[in-house]
Write a structure and sequence with these properties.
This protein is α/β, with parallel strands linked by helices. The protein contains seven helices and seven strands; from the N terminus they run αββαβαβαβαββαα. The longest helix has 20 residues.
Length: 205
């Protein structure tokens, strides 16, 4: 109930504070397990992704555990579907929980760079998002968030671009196991798609 109230309220507040544009909304998948992989520029990136997708089952969003240290932020984040994860700690318990939720039909939003980019360039993708997708049998939906001028600013445009969904079969990530070479190839394919989304939408930069 809290989530259902907060999303429309956030939609109103965010559209007053930002000029939000969504490109490729028709590519959003709602009828099967999917992991959204997006670049990361600002602490409020997840809000733009939630509003761009808007309706459907509550998304699972992974965020660094440091954001959960204070009582109110912890309470709020947990109630809107954000799950804390310990970066660099091999937090397999959280990953297993996310995998189970995605198998159950929920969409996971993961920022695989692991941290925000300071200069806007895409950083090397980490493996966690691909492990979740492979273990949950979920396709990958690449997304790119673009802020006018390169940084998030109030009353400036923020654009969320969704690419076409990439089936696991195309990434070679089907089955229980896969080689390191296959994983590198999957990362390279998704990285190329994310860079393509930026190049095709530079008018919004």
């Amino acid at each position: 109930m809290f989530y259902c109230i907060m999303v429309p309220l956030a939609w109103l507040v965010w559209h007053l504070a930002f000029r939000i544009k969504v490109v490729g909304r028709e590519n959003i998948v709602r009828d099967r397990p999917v992991v959204i992989i997006c670049n990361h520029l600002s602490a409020i990136d997840p809000v733009f992704l939630i509003l761009a997708r808007f309706w459907g089952k509550r998304m699972i969003i992974l965020a660094k555990e440091e954001l959960f240290q204070k009582p109110f932020p912890r309470w709020f984040l947990l109630h809107v579907g954000v799950i804390p994860i310990g970066r660099g700690k091999g937090d397999t318990g959280t990953i297993d929980k996310v995998i189970a939720e995605v198998k159950g039909g929920r969409t996971a939003l993961i920022f695989p760079e692991g941290t925000r980019s300071k200069d806007g360039s895409l950083q090397r993708l980490k493996s966690g998002a691909f492990v979740v997708a492979q273990q949950a049998g979920a396709d990958i939906l690449p997304a790119r968030i673009i802020y006018r001028g390169g940084k998030m600013r109030v009353f400036h445009r923020a654009t969320v671009v969704f690419g076409k969904c990439i089936p696991l079969e195309e990434l070679g990530l089907t089955g229980e196991e896969h080689s390191a070479a296959v994983l590198r190839g999957a990362k390279a394919r998704v990285t190329a798609e994310l860079e393509k989304l930026l190049e095709e939408n530079r008018e919004y930069c």
